[in-house]
Amino acid sequence: MTERTYELLEVLRRPELLKTLSLPEWGRLIPQARHALLLGRLHALVLQHGLVDVLPEQPLNHTLSAYLASQKQRTTTAWEVRKLSDALQSLGLPLVLLKGSAYIQSGLSVAEGRLLSDIDILVPKEKLSTVENTLHSRGWRSSKGDAYDERYYREWMHEIPPLRHITRGSFLDVHHTILPPTAKYKPDPVKIMADIREVAPGVYTLSPVDMVIHSATHLFHEGDFDHGLRDILDLHGLLNHFGENEPGFWHRLVPRAVELDLVHPLYYALHYCRLILNTDIPAAVLEQSRKGRPNPLMSGVMDGLFMRALRPDHPSCEQPLTGVARWLLYVRSHYLRMPLYLLIPHLTRKAWKRRVADKTEQTGPAQANVPEPRARANRWRFWAR
Amino acid sequence: MMTRISELDLIQLQSQLKGVGLYLKTGPFSYRIRSSVPAIAEGLHLLYGDSAFYPQMDFVDFDIRLDAPSRLRRYFRPKLDFYFDHQTPFKPLPLTQAYAFLEWGMNWCISVHMNQYLKLHAAVLEKNGRALVMPAAPGSGKSTLCAALMLRGWRLLSDEHALISLDDNKLIPVCRPISLKNRSIKVISQFDSSAVFGPLCEDTHKGNVVHMKPDEQSVALDHQPVTPGWLVFPKYIPGADTRLTERIKETAFLKAGDQSFNYSLLGAEGFEVMSRLIEACDCYNFSYSNLDEAVETFDKLSETAA
What we know:
heterodimer, A: alpha/beta, seven-stranded mixed sheet, globular, B: alpha+beta, eight-stranded mixed sheet, five-stranded mixed sheet
């Protein structure tokens, strides 16, 4: 094949290429971007480069549609943030936003056209039950019913079971630290909380370096690489933005990661941002971060895995062993989260439950003339309606 | 000269569907459909005969495929998956529901992905240059009424989606088969024996479902937008008299908003477009049980077109 196959990565690296795409190339780009949850981001790039009137209308209808959905989410998110901030202020606590909602509240360009599946917040562990009670009284209820899940989250995870608002339907993840307590690395949430930044009255985000380190940790401990490219693009955007606008950012980045015991994920983040998106990172910072590099053998293996998994999740982007790579990384993420004696029973149970769940598909009424969705429908769709 | 899908015989259509796929343009949207299921080929052959046949397209909006999830599933309690861009957003359905699965999936493609229009869950027809928009919840007799009007000479724009242009407020046609359920299947076949039906799908989550072919004229005009004329909320009530009563615009706005797929997603623009639509339309409630009387009522209404 002489055709270019990886349109999405190429245009993310060099948006000016958008002008050169033929319709058949758009025909591959749009599904790739849709799978990677990047259609709206792509439209933001089109807008930033003033290309709306130059590019063909048919593919732009798809990017525009997703972009409008993300704009709607911004409005919804602003409302949810206000409600959450009211709830936490009643306890005298700051509202600390993580990930997508933090990018939106900080007005970062990575948030343009980006979709979120939920709002993530960080609360001090000792306040967890007070926060939960308050949220409960304001309509946020646990969306996982089963006692096993409940126990899994409570004992082994860094967050409580996901909450869903009973009337508004939005999802909320309440974290008390940024990695499971059973994980190999032990970042101290108190240090992170000590450095938060106020972006609106009562609303906070992590400091720029911590935001990057958290994003890196999240991506490289995540088992699910469906949105891996989206997440690496977030990192790329954060590094570009803070590198330019935040004095002392590069200087503080690696030392802070060392302090938080998270230099390994930061190394991966910098390494793959540079490899995949040509992110501009000072050589000295890359050099410093090499203390988080695994041994050469491991490092070669990881390159093979991540470089596959971080491609758009679309058959047109698949290389030999992409599936295997995703699976190995899934297992790895669990291995990093908990020791084997906990992990094996957990994964066995999960696999079993999935089988049972597939067998008990339920039928219920649907509104318009459409088929019934699978249970694992994207969360963001609930939001964007 | 345009080739129509009806110029292919069933065998040719089948091999097209099994091979590169059937490229289909309906209103502003294009699909590529692939399937090795005979009922899909039969249904498309029966219902899309008047649509243009395209040997290929440079860009398709929706790339879909309906096939058994595994080899085993072809023989043992055969089930189908609906693939959209290689993903399977829906629960698999039995092979016997294949054709309905295709049409529903095609609806979903529009409902979920396209926001360049304001979209209402509504039937849309045209007479004397004006569009009749009928938003309604399932079970209100919207499709039955829509089918009857089409069979009596109204032009069909859509049985499922009112697409309203954000620029000039016109109704954009997306002319596809009309979905009839349960008792309305018999009602329509008795109403007019010329109605053409696709494969019957029994015991779906919506009951028995069949799709009815749009007339040639409606398909031929599938690219011509229409100025809004009437916004009518239909309700089938067994034994009821035929009644068309004016409805105040404020509540019409709310009710139409309720039947919209993306009114709130479009934010301020959604509000603007909806306001202009309501402003441009005469709004009515309509209850009926007799289809002949219903058609007569709407024919009279169409004479009020300015």
